[in-house]
Amino acid sequence: MASTSIEWTNRTWNPVTGCSRVTPGCDHCYAEAMAKRLQAMGQPRYTNGFAVTLHEDVLDLPLRWRTPSRIFVNSMSDLFHSQVPDALLLRVFAVMRQAHWHTFQILTKRPGRLRRLARALDWPSNVWVGVSIESDRFVARADALRMVPAPVRFLSCEPLLGPLSSLALDGIAWVLIGGESGPQARPMELSWVRDLIARGRERGIAVFMKQMGSRWARQHGERGKGSNPATWDADLRVREYPAPLLRRTAFL
Question: What would the DSSP string read from start to end of 131-148?
Answer without folding.
Answer: EE--SGGGTHHHHHHTTS
